[in-house]
Design goal:
The chain contains 15 helices and 27 strands. By secondary structure, the protein is of the alpha+beta class. The strands form six sheets. Strands 3, 4, 5, 6, 7, 10, 11, 12, 13, 14 and 15 form an eleven-stranded mixed sheet that branches.
């Protein structure tokens, strides 16, 4: 029971657990838990209080890997390791299960850390089939070898066009005239990274000694991949042996690096974030449960964390580990020192009041698409563009070629789609429009009824302004000329408050209605909510 309660805090979620099966989902922020062996390595100190092992046990080796200078522009990060004496199981079923687990771990790391092998790719080989020392060079695309799962030699170009793995990952080598290959002392191809291994290095049920190569562009991702594969094999009794690497630039070094990373965190930052004044013993216990070691410190705390913890990017990540290791439930409680009560934004208050007024007028709220087209927005309703229209670069239909500048055309289109229903049809909408590539909020109504006319439209506008608290003495009604908008000549008006235009309304011209395949009398109007908010102070605030 304790396992099922506490393990999710480690970065996992238990989905099923019984006497035979243990199913666990790994959270995306912990790619170091993607196989049973590395998960068990993290669980032991977290659950059972075992001594953490943030370092990778590595012995010196005499195998070398030389990297040609041409790799600097092709695939500059090259790492390698040897693991000997791995216990792959006693029965054929156990050995097959081991190979399956190793390959699955490799592909999960390709996805999680390698980003589809772009940042890092891993090659796992049978060391007994190889002849050290090794070297990495670049070759032309007509270079040939026998790739994995093939029986005859194929050129690089053929692999990229015909082999399943080549087809999947050929895009990683786009634009490169030469490509990397890893050779042994007999010039046999171990690997063609990041695409595929050579056939003769295939890991079999009898393989106990392994050679691992990791290549890529992201050094940190490559280091984590190499460490995690080595950690998986060492958990099965393998002895990790360092490989001396002569890189394409810089000094010779050995990989993998056994030492953990030293992280420094301000003690005051820990208290500020978690609100808890930890003792040194509490810090040591918490970080030990997370697989690290506490080195002490006064103003700044020092921690040793495994190199394979790819998720640790910032001091805040160490603080999160402290919280998880200590337990969120044991951090105490506190009351906020400032008021956390929410307050509606002014535009939200206005939108609510507009909706209440429209509903009081018997209008039904609708929500249409912000996508429209130039014909509906401008040509049919006789409105000119307000600023530059926002056009869709690759529209999938002629009806959705731009972001709307006005709402009323959308309401006309909606009434047209429902013209077979009985009258009256009374609708309104409050929502976003885009003018000159900037969002603005507008509200519009449209009534389709045999009694619709200019007088009713003016009544709607007056009621809305009154409900919003407008001083009617400051409101002016300015007649629109024929052809200015969708209104019938002499039956359309613009509304101004203190000289500021806030909207317009009127009786819809039958010639406009016909363009939307409508023949019923209609009245409507549209308001700029930002202009209304500026012109009419909110009486509540």
């Amino acid at each position: 029971m304790r396992l099922s309660v506490e393990l999710p805090l480690l970065g996992t979620d238990i989905s099923h657990c019984d006497s035979n099966t243990f199913e666990v989902e790994i959270f995306p922020d912990r790619p170091d838990l993607l196989c049973a062996e590395t998960l068990a390595h993290a669980i032991r100190p977290f659950i059972h209080g075992e001594e953490p092992q943030p370092n990778l046990e590595v012995i010196d080796g005499d195998i070398t890997l030389a990297v040609d200078a041409s790799l600097a522009e092709v695939r500059p990060v090259i790492l390698a390791a040897v693991v000997r004496g791995v216990d792959v199981g006693q029965t054929e079923e156990q050995r097959q299960q081991f190979i399956k687990g190793l390959m699955e771990h490799q592909e999960k790391l390709h996805f999680a850390l390698g980003r589809g092998r772009r940042r890092a790719s891993i090659g796992v080989h049978d060391l007994s089939a190889l002849a050290p020392p090794f070297r990495v060079i670049t070759v032309a695309r007509d270079y040939s070898f026998i790739p994995l799962a093939a029986t005859e030699e194929m050129s690089i170009e053929e692999i990229l066009k015909e082999h399943p793995k080549g087809i999947d990952y050929a895009h990683l080598l786009d634009g490169m005239e030469t490509v990397p290959v890893i050779l042994d002392a007999n010039d046999a191809v171990l690997s063609f990274p990041p695409i595929i291994n050579g056939e003769h290095t295939t890991v079999s049920e009898n393989t106990t000694d392994f050679f691992i190569d990791v290549t890529g562009w992201d050094e940190r991702a490559c280091v984590a991949c190499l460490q995690l594969i080595c950690l998986q094999l060492s958990a099965r009794g393998g002895v990790v042996e360092a490989v001396r690497i002569n890189p394409c630039s810089g000094e010779e070094f050995s990989a993998p690096d056994p030492a953990p990373l030293n992280h420094e965190v301000s003690r005051s930052l820990v208290k500020d974030i978690l609100g808890w004044d930890f003792t040194d013993d509490q810090i040591g216990t918490a970080i030990s449960r997370m697989g690290g070691k506490f080195l002490g410190g006064d103003e700044f705390l020092h921690f040793l964390m495994p190199r394979w913890r790819f998720d640790i990017l910032h001091p805040i990540d160490i603080i999160e580990d402290l919280a998880i290791g200590h337990g969120y439930d044991d951090l105490g409680s506190s009351q906020p020192e400032i008021s956390m009560a929410g307050q509606a934004r002014p535009e939200s208050m206005l939108g609510r009041r507009v909706r209440e007024c429209m509903q009081g007028l018997g209008l039904q709220q609708v929500q249409s698409l912000t996508l429209s087209n130039e014909a509906d927005q401008f040509t049919k309703v006789r409105w000119l563009p307000q600023g530059e229209p926002t056009i869709i670069a690759n529209p999938i239909t002629n009806e959705h070629t731009m972001l709307r500048q006005s709402i009323l055309p959308s309401l006309l289109r909606l009434i047209a789609s429902n013209r077979h229903h009985e009258l009256p049809q009374c609708i309104y909408e409050s929502g976003y429009c885009v003018r000159d590539h900037k969002n603005t909020t507008r509200a519009a109504w449209l009534v389709a009824d045999h009694k619709a006319g200019f007088a009713k439209a003016r009544g709607f506008a007056q009621i809305l302004l009154r409900d919003l608290g407008a001083e009617m003495a400051t409101v002016t009604w300015e007649a629109l000329e024929a052809g200015q908008g969708p209104w019938l000549a002499g039956r359309g008006a613009r509304i101004k408050i203190d000289g500021r235009i806030v909207g317009e309304f009127g009786e819809v011209d039958p010639s406009v209605s016909e363009k939307f395949e409508l023949s019923v009398p209609m009245h409507g109007g549209e308001f700029d909510l930002k202009a209304l908010r500026t012109a009419i102070p909110d009486p509540v605030i």
